[in-house]
Each structure stands twice: as structure tokens, then as C-alpha cells.
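Researcher: Here's a chain I'd like modeled. Treat it as a single chain, no partners, no ligands.
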Amino acid sequence: MSYTNTTELKNFLEACKAKLMCNENRKSVDFPEEFITPCWDSKKISESNKLLLDELGNNANVYAIFVANKDSEEYILKYIGQTRKK
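Model: Modeled as a single isolated chain. C-alpha cells:
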């Protein structure tokens, strides 16, 4: 599925966020601050992805990382990834 305009994509991401954040689907994992800090080191990125997938039990086809906003109860979307089919 591809999206040709920004509004469609934003709506899709909001729907994903709502589904991910409902209690029945959510698996919350606390990661250290350095995990969510921008990084361009390919080895660190690979290690972070492995850590995330291990925590998810390799059950996710698509995953999203949301970071809690310290000043409110909002979550900020930081990353969306897709696992590779084996």
C-alpha cells in the first residue's frame, strides 16, 4: 500500500497510533535515552534494531517507536520499521 499525499499518510499513522496505544495491543518497553537519540553509526543502529525485535519476541511485522512526552500524556512518533520476512 502506498500513499500519494501527506494527509492520507498522516491519517494512516494516526489510525496506527490509536490501535497501537490501546491496552489490548500495546507492549511497552522502556529503552535507555541513547536508544532514541539520533545515531548514524550503522553498528549501533543494527544493535538497537536487534534489541527492539528481541523485546517484541520477533512477532511484529510492523512496529513503531513512540516516545513519551515528559510535559504531557502525549506520545511522539519517532520511528516506524518493518521486519524482514524469513
